[in-house]
Amino acid sequence: MVLLKSFRNIFGVSELRKKIFFMLGVLIINRLGTYIPVIGVNVPMLADLMQQKSGIGGLLGYFDIFSGGALTRCTVFALGIQPYITASIMLQILGMTIPSLEQLLKEGEYGRKIINQYTRYLTLVLSVAYSFSYAWFLELNGLVLVPGWGFRIIFVLTLTAGAMLVMWMGDQISLHGIGNGSSMLIFAGIVSQYPAHALKLVNMVDLGQVHLLMALAVLVAYMAITAAIVYLEKADRKIPVHYARRVVGNKVYGGQSTYIPFKINGAGIMPVIFAGTVARFPLMIASMLSVYFPSLQVVVQSFYTGPLYYVVQFLLVIMFSFFYTALFVNPVELAENIRKGGGFVPGLRPGKQTADYFNYTLTRVGLIGAVYLATLTVLPIILQTFFHIPFEESGTSMLIVIGVALELSNQIESYLIERRYEGFLSNGRLKGKALRS
User: Fold this and answer.
1) Which of 96, 167, 282, 292 is the most buried (most CB within 10 A)?
2) Which pLDDT belongs to residue 389?
3) What are the phi and psi torsion angles at 330 (to 5°)?
4) What pLDDT was estimated at residue 336?
5) Cβ-proximal residues to 6 (8 Å cutoff; 6+ apart), any chain
6) How far apart are CA 422 and CA 428, in angstroms?
7) pLDDT of 99 strictly over 90
8) pTM of the full predicted structure?
9) Is 435 a residue whose pLDDT tops 50?
10) Are the C-beta atoms of residues 404 and 179 closer than 8 Å to each other?
């Protein structure tokens, strides 16, 4: 009953209620678009090819996670939000290396608007490139009913328009809904596959392919992995910072204590996405060249079926975790900003000593986060291989779903506390009358 009351509190705030319904409306429209097929493609044969774990089928199957199955069905929204995410990442990285873009990032709201506009232009370019490559792949594998430039032009225009519409939907959720729009679209796509995966497991139990105890073991394993992800996603290392008291005129500034949180997983989901793409892309090239060099196909198959692939992916996740953390957390700059603000870490001198301590702490915490991400990436495969547990969800998809759900619950919590509720999923009761329409 307390849980139901807490959920009912969400709809007691007019502004929050409108945001949630707006978000749900956009997500429903987005899911409908993932079932509108593109003309001229043999979808059943494409689905069979996407089931392959090696070569280009494995690469497209990996990207299909983020489209919610639309890539397998070859629909209008087949590209999903992937071009926009890629463009955003590219602009973030370029913003750290190109002085003009770095200056825009420091110009506040005006700079962000310009960067967002550049991101949209780059999304358009990437959408055209992705859709043309997809059309070429379909023709190369004989999946197009009437191949030629007529099909290519219609296909590219359809998928590019769909990708731009998905990008616009994500922006609308961020502006008028709740949560990050891009993350919510990916979240909805992954969650939409859960009923089919659960039904598949039930059918396997009914047919005797999987024992009932094994199915229960799958549920227990999912719950244990989910609990571990929630715990580690919220974990951080707090470094205390004290600010000296300063008197400027008749006002007193500082004299307070705070802390800097170094999250265990400060890099988020991006290292997993980068590692998966890097690990699969060379195999896609080798699979395409195997038409002319048959021996390459043996190398591709042995790499995918053996443990070497998972070792490489494990190491890539760790490498990208450190790279992504170092890209966005600068210990020297952080220490300098604290020094300029009159702050200091107890027991350390401001400046270089503080920066060295930040770097040391960030490396130790980052190592835990990197190993955690890498283990999560390969853990479902290990369980499926050694214990024959039919895991349908990858560690990447589980991390995305749980991370987005935590972010969404935190935002709802903030709205409820602001309206004098005790919070989302709290055991308390209403402390004051909420603002109602």
Assistant:
1) 167
2) 66
3) -105, 105
4) 87
5) 423, 424, 425, 426
6) 6
7) no
8) 0.77
9) no
10) yes
The residue ranges of every structural domain in the chain are: 1-193
Nearest to 370, CA basis, from 275, 274, 271: 271
Instruction: Write out pLDDT tens, residues 121-132.
Output: 999 999 998 888
- Tally Cβ neighbours within 10 Å of residue 260: 16
One-letter amino acid of 308: L
Half-sphere exposure of 383 (CA within 13 A, CB side): 23
- Output the six-digit token pair for 386: 């050694």
Q: What percent of the chain has pLDDT over 70?
A: 82
8 A C-beta contact, residue 115 and residue 96: no
3-class state of residue 1 by DSSP: coil
Give the phi and the psi of residue 427 in degrees, each rounded to 5: -90, 0
* Token duo for residue 299: 């190398």
Cα–Cα distance, 402 to 404 (Å, whole number): 6
Task: Say which CATH class 1-193 falls into.
Answer: mainly alpha
Amino acid at 229: I
Separation CA 25–CA 230 (nearest Å):
28
Residue 408 is which amino acid?
Answer: L
Q: Which 8-state DSSP code applies to residue 343? A: E
Query: Mean pLDDT in the chain?
Result: 79
For residue 299, how many C-alpha atoms fall within 13 Å in the half-sphere facing its CB?
13
Q: What residues contact 50, with CB distance under 8 A and at least 6 apart?
A: 57, 60, 61, 64, 71, 72
CA distance to 245, 251, 252, per residue, from 248 (Å) = 10, 5, 6
- Kindly give, in sequence order, each residue whose CB lies less than 8 Å from that of residue 201, ignoring residues fewer than 6 positions away: 210, 215, 218, 390, 392
d(CA 240, CA 257): 7
C-alpha torsion sign, points 70, 71, 77, 82? positive
